[in-house]
Specification:
Jelly Rolls, 8-stranded antiparallel β-sheet, mainly beta, 7-stranded antiparallel β-sheet, globular
């Protein structure tokens, strides 16, 4: 087994999207090869309804898939091809924008006014950029959860893990999307297929990911999977950890435990031409998409 080195650890940056939604962006609109096939990851956890109530009014997408995971509150959605619904706590929505779709997402807080969730954008290969749009809405009750003997809990949202398969399938990027809780002080190793790009996103507690280049100093343990882990390098809430190549990730949870998303996918390795919600392969394709938005031909008839 080969430990994946930690290439980078960084905080998600505050930003405003939609009609004034305050959120944190872990990555997006930067180098698309960095985490290919993933393009963007937003953390829209918020405790103030006035900072998210205006939502994300009608806007287009083409050439990507979006995966929305709601932890608290609800997200009502409507689109230009007749779909509508509501995502509640624990629910997942996968949307293939494909050839083009107009939609809106309107978040609502829970009884305490909290709106918590995440949205991930996954690229589509050139052969599927203009595929017919479609949805998959999945209730949180359908997501399998594995509880290990040491108290570690893993929700398998997409992909297969420890003998369980997530209910969301058919995504072109073939991702693995896990929601993981590691109890206080527990050291845990998780397999990740070598051919995938991978990242972790911490959203509760704190912990340290083992890395061959970790500096010496005050250690959580003398050894974590053969690597030293420095307590000063513990990462906490809203931290993105980007990994290099290897086939496993090892983490040591801090005194309050650690909850994070572990996401990986097979790189597409194609040119990316990207402007806002439209992601194509060439500038000409982008120009065509925006011309169609202007002249009203953006939405394609179903085949």
């Amino acid at each position: 087994m080969s430990l994946r080195p930690t290439l980078e650890s960084r905080q998600a940056a505050p930003t405003i999207e939609g009609a004034g939604v305050h959120l944190h962006r872990a990555f997006g609109f930067q180098d698309p090869s960095e985490l290919d096939p993933f393009l963007l990851f937003d953390d829209f956890r918020n405790e103030r309804p006035e900072d998210f109530a205006q939502g994300f009014p009608w806007h287009p997408h083409r050439g990507i898939e979006t995966i929305t995971y709601v932890l608290s509150g609800t997200v009502d959605h409507t689109d230009s091809i007749g779909n509508s619904g509501s995502l509640g706590a624990g629910d997942i929505q996968w949307m293939t924008a494909g050839s083009g779709i107009m939609h809106q997402e309107m978040p609502k807080g829970n009884a305490q006014g909290q709106m918590h969730g995440f949205q991930l954008w996954a690229n589509l290969p050139s052969s599927l950029k203009m595929t017919t749009p479609r949805y998959q809405d999945v209730s949180g009750t359908e997501i399998p959860e594995i509880i290990d003997d040491d108290g570690t809990r893993v929700k398998v949202i997409i992909g297969s893990f420890w003998g369980k398969s997530g209910p969301v399938d058919g995504i072109a990027a073939d991702p693995q999307y896990l929601d993981i809780y590691v109890p206080p002080g527990v050291k845990k190793t998780f397999p990740v297929d070598t051919y995938r790009r991978a990242f972790a996103y911490i959203f509760e507690g704190a912990g340290a990911f083992a890395d061959a280049s970790a500096p010496s100093g005050v250690l959580l343990e003398k050894e974590v999977a053969g690597q030293e882990v420095n307590i000063r390098d513990m990462s906490g809430n809203r931290t993105l950890v980007r990994f290099g190549t290897g086939d496993e990730v090892t983490v040591q949870a801090g005194p309050d435990g650690l909850r994070f998303l572990l996401i990986s996918g097979a790189p597409i390795q194609e040119p990316v031409a990207w402007h806002g919600p439209i992601v194509m392969n060439t500038k000409q394709e982008l120009q065509t998409a925006f011309a169609e938005l202007r002249n009203g031909t953006f939405i394609k008839p179903a085949h």
